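User: Please predict structures.

Assistant: First:
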Amino acid sequence: MTSVMAVDLGKTGCRAVLWRGAGSSPSVSSVAGAPGLAAPDGVAAARAAVRAAVEPLLREQGGARPEAVLVGAAGAASAPAAARSLADALLAELPVDEAAVTSDAVTAHAGALGGRAGVVLAIGTGSVAVGIGADGTYARVDGWGPLLGDDGSGARIGTAGLRAALRAHDGRGPATALLDAAVRLFGDPERLPATVGRDGNPARTAASFAPEVARAAAAGDAVAGAV
């Protein structure tokens, strides 16, 4: 019976599923995600997140040793060398015969459409669209990370909301409920830059503010609505 470990590694969360074959119930483990393979030290952070997610499943009583670990990782498309390094590290460190790492956008497409032609838009901390045609042609739009792309993502919305909050704090922009929301969530605005970057995953921290932007917009805040 084939046993496979599948991992969805995003910038906010990392979820591993151990599948033991048809008719069996998969085991699931979730931990915090990693900044992305294209980020500085992205391979080390990804390796730590994947191991933290898969090791509890490997220790399960009576669990079959998986033959392969398959990882869909944020940033893999922009950093193929890092994806190969992560695969090599996992193959050396985990009790598997094969390891593969590809973009989480590719695995999202496979999971949603099962190999059929079509387009999948994946939006979370980041954002990317992947299309595969009936003739096998492949196209990707965005997925360039929070600095250069990821339009419409949680990180971009949260960052725009925090910038608006700081402009209101400085008196450079209009008053907005986002300032009070930022204070509730993160504390002193003067310390906000350090707070956003302190855990090494600023995209994840910024994305945590996106729900506040949505709530303020729904309540009629014009600045949040513009974001």
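Second:
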Amino acid sequence: MISLYTTPPIWGLPSISPACMKLETWFRIANISYETLVLTANDIELAPKGKMPFIKYQGKIIGDSTLIIEMLKEKEGIDLDKNLTSTERAISLAFRRMLKENTYWGMGYIRYNVEANWQIYQEVLASMLFGDTPKAEWEPIVAEFGNSTRAQIYTQGMGRHTNEEICQIITADFQALSDFLAEKPFFMGEEPTTLDATAYAFIGNTIKLPLVHPIIDNVRQMDNLCQHYERMTQRFYRDRLVPVQ
């Protein structure tokens, strides 16, 4: 049994971390048995790369969702992309890199750099990391974490752009996904692949947030991406759906 250290579900999402949600979804598509261990402040010290997610596999702690998937492909002989052509594999990799290395930073900007959103999101972080700890104790720690993240966003480069420029850049990422998906049920055809696990996490962590930003509004208008999110949820997370009263 693999132990998956992940961030908790919230806002109807399996995880508020795209990387955590991607990895858990990959597990579910691949039909891999696992247990989830929800992040606490102490767990960060266990993370081999200082970030989530990470797993315990055969007694070893392994970090980074992309490297975890590659390791399990080799160790368990599971490859969601085995039926793809070399061209399709290249396209899948390019989109996944776009989401991880570019789109991710725009999503971080929405959460950390827009003050109204940060006021909401810091409460989520505090609840996730510190539980019922009084605000006076967690507030300076979370504030420092926010400052550190904003510094990373600036150093990476996304934070150097104006809000309007970031909206243009990140909306174009999602538009490219929408154009490629077109009318297909999944990005590479009739069955989900690694790209679907990745895109599902990023789409969900955009359209399901109770935050305000033009990027969120724009993606919510991309009907096929929203439908893809619902299709993936129905197929792989039915156990977590809340029954309609």
